[in-house]
Amino acid sequence: MNCSATLTAIAGQCGKTLGGIRRFFIINRDKIGEITVSEGAVTAITLAAQNPAPGDGFISYGFKRGTANVATTGNADDQGRNNSFTTVATLEFMKQETAKRVALQAIVETDAYAVWEDNNSKRFLMGYDTAIASNVNSETGSGYTEDNKYVLSITDNSLELPYEITMTEQAWEAILDENLE
Predict the structure, then answer these.
(1) Which parts of the chain sit beneath pLDDT 70?
(2) Phi, psi (5° rounding) for residue 53?
(3) Is the pTM of this model over 0.85?
């Protein structure tokens, strides 16, 4: 079987790039009306509700700077040619408390999409092919100087690398729960 894809060049990289995640968002899959992918990027996301209200948009999850990351691994199947990608986002939420426990439990129990914004102001979508899978660990440490925290791991199994979201800043801000009235 002869399988091929159109190869394109990648220009040399100059300048700085920042690692890490700045912001993270999650939304129930049933709150999304449509996701438009064009030329390899998400160019539009619409909410399902005709008149969105609080609870209908992407929910923001805050975390301490330097405690979140995302890694994607390619999974090649040489015999079946069924290539896939596993993306895992790991976020730490310091200080265990009821409000965080309830919020994290809800994430684990829902079918959702997730979006991360990196420190280069680029956003990427998780859950395009199938709903994200989530789990939470809690850690207390054994001494006063060790972290007391929850660690949320979100996994996305997809047929392609996560899509960058290239919609306008105004369009993105309009679907954030914190901006809905």
Answers:
(1) 1-17, 80
(2) -125, 170
(3) yes
Helix (H, G, I), strand (E, B) or coil at 113: strand
Which residue spans within the chain are E strands per DSSP? 21-28, 32-38, 41-47, 59-61, 68-75, 84-94, 112-118, 123-126, 133-139, 149-158, 164-165
**Token pair in block for residue 49:** 């509700």
Res 8: pLDDT: 63
Q: Are strands 164-165 and 123-126 parallel, antiparallel or unpaired?
A: antiparallel
Tokens describing residue 102: 């309830």
Q: Residue 42's beta-bridge partner residues?
A: 37, 165
Q: Give 114: exposed, middle or buried? Use CB within 10 Å, 0-12, 13-18, 19+.
A: buried
Residue found under tokens 């409000």: 99
pLDDT of residue 7: 65
Name the β-bridge partners of 86.
Answer: 73, 157
